[in-house]
Write a structure and sequence with these properties.
3 helices, single chain, elongated, alpha+beta, ribonucleoprotein, 133 residues
């Protein structure tokens, strides 16, 4: 078994790389502890794979480097990368089934992208108001 495992998670334009290694339960996002992440809802979302892992989370350290996108996209990308890394590190099919049952999007990148702007409009769907007079 190698010293560490790297996994990637994506959401919209956010890309997260999670590095998992044997450790003492430290979880860093861009070098800062995950507990210091400012938005509580997103912090809880990022901690879901760790909560599912339970007590075994004290055996590992996860360092996530995330860039691009906004807060929510980065949180989802981080969550996906962490879940994938945890599954590959422990190689436990029961754990994978538990994560998949909890939320499949933790293991599958969301492929939806922003729809491009169309001519004669302000965005993908909105159009200029039509005047008859």
């Amino acid at each position: 078994m190698s010293d560490y495992i790297i996994k990637v998670g994506k959401r919209k334009t956010a890309i997260a790389r999670a590095i998992i290694r044997k450790g003492s339960g430290k979880f860093l996002i861009n070098g800062y502890p995950i507990e210091l992440y400012p938005i509580e809802i997103l912090r809880e979302k990022m901690l879901e794979p760790i909560r599912i892992l339970g007590d075994r989370s004290k055996e590992i350290d996860i360092d996530v480097n995330v860039h691009g996108g906004g807060n929510t996209g980065q949180a989802d990308a981080t969550r996906t990368a962490m879940a994938k890394a945890i599954i590959e590190y422990f190689k436990d099919s029961d754990l994978e089934a538990e994560i998949r049952a909890y939320d499949r999007s933790m293991l599958v990148n969301d492929v939806r992208r922003k729809m491009p702007k169309k001519p004669m409009g302000y965005g993908a769907r909105a159009k200029r108001q039509k005047s008859y007079r």
